[in-house]
Write a structure and sequence with these properties.
With 360 residues, the protein is an alpha/beta fold. The chain is 35% helix and 16% strand. Strand 3, helix 4 and strand 4 form a beta-alpha-beta unit. The chain is globular. The structure holds pyridoxal-5'-phosphate.
Length: 360
């Protein structure tokens, strides 16, 4: 068996310890005589799994008691519709468009009401986060929406926007559990887990309790009401059982590592190694404004498409895989999520140095 360093943006690397543990439990979960994949979601054994998963993410993020944690399906993309269906009471919401995912959410919301573009960084191919300290925000907005870490472009909101008292909704798919957050500042904070937490198929929605009501847009399907899932503790229908089990294991792994303060420290250290190299290289360059750099997704280019392709190919041969940039931007992108060890980043940087020397 040989594992590679996987820099994929998602589905992405998971902690090896977690995978080993899951492998050990594959045929017989704790004496149940069956795999978690085979058991009833209504069984006692599974109930413990999902309840512990919820408690562990609550502990990790210090989630206040007036927030619910929902384990849902449909990916982050389904939330682009579910959020307006449940929150757009005045049929008007504001969007800060900082990349493809924010743009998709903005476009989807237009199906349900008026989506107001409050700010955008599209003028410079989403290479920065606009100044959101004093936005012109209409009074009658139901909420302000952001994508906190832009997976494709590699930017991150270092400061949350001033929403001027409006509810903040954030997609944190690619920075989930990468550092401490103040959940109380959000109405909803949500993300698909396949970037930084677990296997694809689960989306975690952390939502302030008072936002969970029957007062949703007409025609909202039962499955797309937060209330349906909140009233049934995420067990209204069969949840993505195995995915939730894996997320639970990752939560325990994070707790063992020292929690989100420790993850932040490690993530900053890893990102620094890569950014320092990019800032000093004569061949490779970062593509976004330094002040807005993501700790999780690091895009870079050589400025020469053939050289980029050669780099991606040779890196893969050296066991550094999935470094190709998103199809919409090209170049390279290294996603260095929680589960990417520091050695992976160090190996990448030494490979970049060798490549630079060999291709001058
Ligand atoms: C990957 C990603 C999405 C889309 O997630 P799906 O689960 O595929 O719908 C949305 N937002 C962000 C920030 C992402 O990184």
């Amino acid at each position: 068996m040989s594992r590679v360093y996987n820099f994929s943006a998602g589905p992405a690397v998971l902690p090896e310890e977690v995978l080993r543990e899951a492998a050990e439990e594959m045929l017989d979960y704790k004496g149940s005589g069956m795999s978690v994949m085979e058991m009833s979601h209504r069984s006692k054994v599974y109930d413990t799994i999902i309840k512990e998963a919820e408690q562990d993410i609550r502990d990790l993020m210090h989630i206040p008691d007036n927030y619910r944690v929902l384990f849902l399906q449909g990916g982050a993309s389904q939330q682009f519709a579910m959020i307006p269906m449940n929150l757009m009471k005045n049929r008007k919401a504001g969007f800060i468009v900082t990349g493809q995912w924010a743009k998709k959410a903005y476009q989807e919301a237009q199906i349900y009401g008026e989506a107001v573009k409050l700010a955008s960084s599209e003028d410079k191919t989403f290479s920065y986060i606009p100044d959101c300290s004093n936005l012109d925000i209409p009074d009658d907005l139901d909420y302000v929406y952001i994508c906190e870490n832009n997976t494709i472009y590699g930017t991150k909101f270092r400061q949350l926007p001033d929403t001027k008292g409006h509810l903040l909704v954030a997609d944190v798919s690619s920075c989930f559990l990468s550092e401490p957050v103040d959940v109380g500042r959000y109405g909803i904070i949500y993300g698909g887990v396949q970037k930084n937490i677990g296997p694809a198929g689960v989306v975690i929605v952390i939502i302030r309790e008072d936002l969970i009501t029957e007062d949703v847009l007409e025609g909202t399907p039962t499955m797309l009401k937060y209330k349906t899932h909140a009233d049934n503790d995420s067990l209204y229908n069969t949840p993505p059982c195995y995915g939730i089990y894996m997320c639970g294991k990752v939560f325990k792994w994070l707790k063992n590592m020292g929690g989100l303060e420790e993850m932040k420290k490690r993530n900053e250290e890893k990102a620094q190694i890569l950014y320092d190299f990019l800032d000093n290289s004569s061949m490779f360059h970062g593509t976004v404004e330094a002040k807005d750099r993501s700790l999780m997704n690091v895009p870079f280019v050589t400025g020469n498409k053939e050289l980029d392709a050669k780099f991606v190919e040779e890196a893969a041969k050296a066991g550094l895989v999935n470094l190709k940039g998103h199809r919409s931007v090209g170049g390279m992108r290294a996603s260095i999520y929680n589960a990417m060890p520091k050695e992976g980043v160090e190996k990448l940087v030494s490979f970049m140095k060798e490549f630079e020397a060999a291709n001058k």
